[in-house]
Design a protein that fits this description.
With 364 residues, the protein is an alpha/beta fold. The protein contains twelve helices and 16 strands. Strand 4, helix 6 and strand 5 form a beta-alpha-beta unit. The longest helix is centred in the middle third of the chain and has 30 residues. It is globular. The N and C termini lie far apart (46 Å). Bound molecules: 5-S-methyl-1-O-phosphono-5-thio-D-ribulose (MRU).
């Protein structure tokens, strides 16, 4: 990749500032967990997997700032760090997943002294970053089978290298298809109001030389009716137990349009985006963002003063409109409830021979 969305360099988290793209390629440094939290909230770093990885480094920075002398004090401090990070953006479950992973590592090493805890946290955050790239490559490799040669694909928002530690999810599948030599064309939804499509996806795909065309969000239906789109692929911020999918606002409308036009609607996401603790999509927390994202453009007001605004950042697509969910562990078509469970708890998980397996747990 010609750019790094996030990088750990000499004790700092370095982020490619996505609020400045595509006009400026500027990198910002986070030295404290509060700075990481601000960067997530202000969308300097965005996209569910990238938010998760950034939060892991936020936990690391939080631990490094600690002067705690006892595990109890350290635990209290880390609770504050995790609460601050978790409060930034509530929809992407990868954030919670990464914070929990970091907390577990801290807990497992607590008895070995703070130096060891710090070292183990750094190793875990770096592992999370590396794993995310590998996961996306695998997801892309598997998902590209669903992309026919010569097709036109619609994508929404940015589920690319910028939204992950690298390669991307929905764009990972598109990248893998392109790398496999398939002749594809990508239609990019502008993605109002934050313009992740026109600013970020367009930037990424053009950098890679993948043929693409920008459209305004309200053009998708007309293009589908004209037979110009053969499939849609998007990322996800949270996939719950029955297969309902939370993703960027506008995804639901696209899924319904695909349904009406009998066009496949694919969701590409790593297993870290799956949340089996929630049964149905209605229970997913939806982030509400500032009205200013709609009332202003480039810092200038574009609506009457005092205009009332609704600005949910995400919507929920019911599973019946999803053709398949593509993960690094396989593609799930139909029977999402069973498929998601199988992917999250593979048979080996229940094997008695596994040290930490179900049998082992039952014995304790
Ligand atoms: O508000 P954003 O830009 O963080 O929203 C991003 C999306 O909705 C993505 O589609 C999703 O996080 C998946 S990214 C691989």
């Amino acid at each position: 990749m010609a750019f790094k969305t996030l990088e750990w360099k000499k004790g700092k988290l370095v982020l490619l500032d996505q609020t400045r793209l595509p006009l400026k390629e500027v990198y910002v440094e986070c030295l404290t967990y509060q700075e990481v939290a601000q960067a997530i909230k202000n969308m300097v770093v965005r996209g569910a997997p990238a938010i998760g990885v950034a939060a892991a480094f936020g936990m690391l920075l939080g631990a490094r700032e600690s002067n705690a002398r006892t595990p109890a004090t350290f635990r209290r401090e880390m609770d504050k760090v995790s609460q601050t990070l978790l409060a930034t953006r509530p929809t992407a479950v990868n954030l919670l997943w990464a914070v929990e992973r970091m907390k577990r590592v801290a807990e497992e090493n607590m008895g070995k002294g703070m130096l060891v805890v710090g070292k183990k946290l750094q190793e875990e955050a770096l592992r999370l970053l590396e794993e995310d790239v590998q996961t996306n490559r695998e997801l892309g490799r598997q998902g590209q089978i669903l992309i026919p040669d010569g097709c036109s694909i619609l994508t929404h928002c940015n589920a690319g290298a910028l939204a992950t530690a690298g390669y991307g999810t929905a764009l990972g599948v598109i990248r893998a298809a392109f790398e496999a030599g398939k002749r594809i064309h990508v239609f990019i939804d502008e993605t109002r109001p934050f313009l992740q499509g026109s600013r970020l996806t367009a930037w990424e795909l053009m950098k890679d030389g993948i043929p693409c065309t920008l459209i305004a969000d309200n053009m998708a239906g007309a293009l589908m009716a004209q037979g110009k789109i053969q499939l849609t692929i998007v990322g996800a911020d949270r996939i719950v137990a029955n297969g309902d999918v939370a993703n960027k606002i506008g995804t639901y409308s696209l899924a319904r349009l695909c349904h009406v036009h009998r066009i496949p609607f694919y969701v590409a996401a790593p297993t870290s985006t799956i949340d089996l603790s929630i049964k149905r999509g209605e229970a997913i927390p939806i982030e509400q963002r500032s009205p200013a994202e709609l009332t202003s453009f480039n810092g200038r007001r574009i609506t009457p003063e005092g205009m009332r605004v609704l600005n949910p950042a995400f919507d929920v697509t019911p599973h019946r409109y999803v053709t398949a969910i593509i993960t690094e562990k396989g593609i799930i078509q139909k029977f999402f409830r069973t498929g998601l469970k199988k992917i999250c708890f593979p048979p080996s998980y229940f094997s008695p021979s596994r040290e930490e397996g179900w049998e082992g747990r039952r014995r304790r």
